[in-house]
Automatic annotation (TrEMBL):
Its EC number is 1.7.99.4. The keyword Oxidoreductase applies. It is an enzyme of class 1 (oxidoreductase). GO terms for cellular component: membrane; oxidoreductase complex. Belongs to the prokaryotic molybdopterin-containing oxidoreductase family. NasA/NapA/NarB subfamily. One of its GO terms (biological process) is nitrate assimilation. The chain holds residues 1 to 701 of 885 of the full protein. One of its GO terms (molecular function) is 4 iron, 4 sulfur cluster binding. Residues 2-58 form the 4Fe-4S Mo/W bis-MGD-type domain. This is Assimilatory nitrate reductase catalytic subunit.
Amino acid sequence: MSAETKTTCPYCGVGCGVIASIDDHGKVSVKGDPDHPSNYGRLCSKGSALAETIDLDGRLLYPEVGGERASWDDALDLVANHFSETVAAHGPDSVAFYVSGQLLTEDYYLANKLMKGFIGSANIDTNSRLCMSSSVAGHRRAFGSDTVPGTYEDIELADLVILTGSNLAWCHPVLYQRLAAAKAERPGMKVVVIDPRRTVTSDIADLHLAIRPDGDVALFTGLLARLAQSSAIDQNFIATHTEGFSDVFAEASALSFSDLLDKTGLPAMQLREFFRLFETTEKVVTCYSQGVNQSSSGTDKVNAILNCHLATGRIGRPGMGPFSLTGQPNAMGGREVGGLANMLAAHMAIENADDRDRVQRFWKSPVIAERPGLKAVDMFRAVADGRVKALWIMATNPVVSMPDADTVEAAIKACPFVVVSDVLRQTDTTRHADVLLPSIGWAEKDGTVTNSERRISRQRSFLPSPGEAKPDWWQMAEVGRRMGFTEAFSFRSPAGIFAEHAALSSFENNGSRDFDIGACAQIAAEDYETLSPFQWPQAAGAAAQTTRFFAKGGFFHADGKARFVAVKMPVSDRTSAEFPFTLNTGRIRDQWHTMTRTGKSARLSSHIAEPFAEIHPRDAIEIGVSDASLIKIESPQGKVIVRALVTERQARGSLFVPMHWNDSFAAKARIDTVVAPVTDPFSGQPASKNVAVAARPFKAS
Ligand code: SF4
């Protein structure tokens, strides 16, 4: 007889339901939850291997101060006192939190509340900045709010699915399985994949557009110009529900076809076929992910896509709409609580005085941050130049994952006071901590996460907390209380935090805000325990939850209309004689982020055992590397040495290197040491898909 617990996978933004079982001998096994609407029982390789990653090997089990075991009381007092003293001496902006899309919503909520409402700074940013912040900025420009209108069912109902900047098969595998199953059932369904690489995902494509890096703005601008002169244009929707079409159309029309060919690098026939498919298919879903977001023109790419859906009125109806796919399990939940430096809470705007006043009254907080804080790249710059003097890093490994990673590592090392909350004792980041706080891991955690389609699901614990490990929310509540904010941080359970978060989402909401889960505002502990997955919005007292946005307008700009947004053509070629290759970084199928968990599974590691650089055969011949030989990749920021994987899937002049490997698994393979800290001007999201590098054979001296 085994005990079963329904929980949620902690990896990608699909947010699959998982049933974890423990048999009489204490052995844990997992299977997909057949009742969960995200996966209906499916799991991918990573989800299926969850039980292989939850052992205690390498776990951080006790607080440490200066490398020595400490009591929780001593460690928490030190953190609280140090943050309080730093704020008193240097002001609230001298401290910062760098958090993570791995945190549960309840953890994230408290981190945001403590920093923005009680410390009084907005210096809280997240590794989700690296994941989907360009989509947030694009949504806010077009819709007046960060609203994702799509659902997974839309992908199955569409007649045309466009995947741009998304290797869905490896990065959102269960969603890919749903798409593949739908396509098998309905042979008329078409899939277009837009990606400079020919990935596994392109194997399902009826049309693969091997676009130039950052050619997406031109592609969707050219599409808009074409649509505007076709019967696909929805004049009624444009007139009733949008603003700014004529100006944006005039600019789009100025892009000549020869410019379009040049900027996208695509053959004319393929371009025409793509335009024809979009023009003649009403049910179109355009999914986009890191290939769109992780760009110096990421926000403009998002808006170029949204412009096309607004122009055709193909939004918010079954089987149609733009759909940003989040990378992390709780990137969306982080957005809901305002866990980004430029957001407030419950999708309210930090720049808006009424929103600030509303949140401050709700929190009964002594202060409220009045302006956006430091976004990830700027935050570590501020650590480097001494503006930030105390830093708390939670559930993330920036020494591996931030661009210009060596500089980030040096900054953390030099920072006067660094706290790291993590499940592992030794990561590339924890080794620089003054205070290490042991966090509970996936199997031990209780709380909620929100997936890409706005579905909130419970994560439930099924194993006891090991050693003295504690929840992240508990750590923040303790520090908040010790900083003197006793009442505001008196939480005793995640249920209480979730109820406050839900209450804030509907507090004085007159319909002008999208995020509203007020129905959960009075949730009792037992109901929280049994909470079934649901999509927001879910207003208090609503007879049925609303799952669709924008089919009939109802955008969140003050006039209720969406905005067409003018976009700029980016500089897409960053190469030079010295750095002639374009580097693209990304995920592989069986690893997650910096491998601190998936790296424990021999099964997962056997898929691809070591870091590699994909390179086109002719480029390999030109620079003198052969398959499986070592290749050195260099930029002004740093260098890595990995094995060459010679493949025609890679376009000429480009390289692909996975972002996972860290120093614990392979020396000199942290690819983010090579990535320049170039960011999108609107979102601050780093551009990790278009980095100019040199590549040559590595010869050991
Ligand atoms: Fe987990 Fe994503 Fe795989 Fe689902 S698709 S099992 S959420 S990694």
